[in-house]
Amino acid sequence: xxxxxxxxxxxxxxxxxxxDDCIDHLENVQNNPWQPIDSQTKNDLAPKLPKSGASDHxxxxxxTKTVLPTATGNIHPKFFGWVHGTGLTSGLMAEIVAATxxxxxxxxxxxATYMERCVIDWAREIFDFPEDASGLLTVGTSQASIIAxxxxxxxxxxxxIRHKGVSDLPKVKAYCxxxxxxxxxxxxxxxxxxxxxxxxxxxxxxxxxMDIGILKDAVQKDRSDGFLPLAVVGxxxxxxxxxxxxxxxxxxxxxxxxxxxxxxGAFGAWTKIAEAPWSELxxxxxxSDSVAFDFHKWMSVQYDCGAVLVRDGDLHYNTFANRPAYxxxxxxxxxxxxxxxxxxxxxLSRGFRALKVWTAFQAHGLDAFSSAITENxxxxxxxxxxxxxxxxxxxxxxxxxxxxxFRVLNSENAFNSELVHKLQEDGACVFSxxxxxxxxxxxxxxxxxxTQMQDIxxxxxxVIEALEK
Length: 469
Ligand SMILES: *Cc1c(COP(=O)(O)O)cnc(C)c1O
Prior knowledge:
This protein is of the alpha/beta class. It has helices spanning 8-27, 39-45, 56-67, 89-101, 111-126, 141-157, 161-164, 182-190, 212-224, 247-257, 313-320, 353-389, 413-425, 453-468, and strands at 134-138, 172-177, 198-201, 228-235, 261-264, 290-294, 306-310, 393-395, 403-408, 432-436, 439-445.
């Protein structure tokens, strides 16, 4: 039995209706902030396993009336929580085509493979990686980090490790700035080294870089104690404060010591395409052995899409390639093609992520992203200015890129988080919170191409108004 419509005309009508409702939602995005989900909707979102289906009309209603209003709200211009990308109208079109094609992008000879290769080439160009570097689109930076650190391990121990496992290996250490994203510890846990192998290197202030002097001493001591350095993980854009490590200094040190330099550039790597002075923040990223970054954060591409670039493309291939007979490369036909992306990561079946990235660049052009990213940095600086001029608020760390952290003067920790919850629930704006030195901070990470300067004023005013009430 085919699952296709019996009445294509009706399907067409309903699908057009869904599209129109989605476009209405986007056009009126400023009226669609996150709102708490009521219990009726929670039930509607989790019905009993359906034994029989519904009409296209009912499905269209369900999608647009029940599901659409329950969004996270990160497409709203006053959303600054965590680091959530905003999405693109071009992405909506791309996703319709991707869903229609339903390509499996693990390999074989079809359009998606050429397009992913193109997108990786563009990323190589942006981050100044050499032509023989390899790359892969991933779920996000978390998956990209696992792939990158697995490559680092192949470099250190050889690709035999794939068969022999880790039990007989010497103990390794990985060096990260304090506050490095948790995806690095998860990667090391999965790889069997355990997150205890992470050596936390303090930073020069909350918005400063990793202290290289302490890093040098730690590596020297660990080496003399018989540990092997697996990698130094540099951060381009830290979660808490948007801080950057001095990547050139890390690259100098890693070259000297022959240690793999991985850069977590989830959002911050993209300052590379911003205007000066922000374009200087990620200087040296081009010297890293691997870099992980997201298209779904600051580049606004629809979820999910991250990427990894690995300088030594052969090593990357040899760390993951494994083609049993049923996947053997064919001389021609659909099973041909000289580049199969399943050879560069853990996933065989893969969605068509390249299309939404490719469409984003084609639709808007690099310059528009450069301006949007520059603008977000200016907005974070402006927010800091407003905070500093307020009698109620204090800035918690200098703003270096697009993250602004502050708190209410002379307040308890809980007061700050309650304020954030209230603003979210009112639909006024979304900040998230973090903790530095035991203090709860209100945090804005601005990666939002819809945000205008007046939104920055309006959210700080909303904070102050909520305080005065
Ligand atoms: C978001 C983020 C990650 C994790 O990336 P995902 O795409 O969510 O997997 C890692 N590092 C930093 C600095 C991040 O902001």
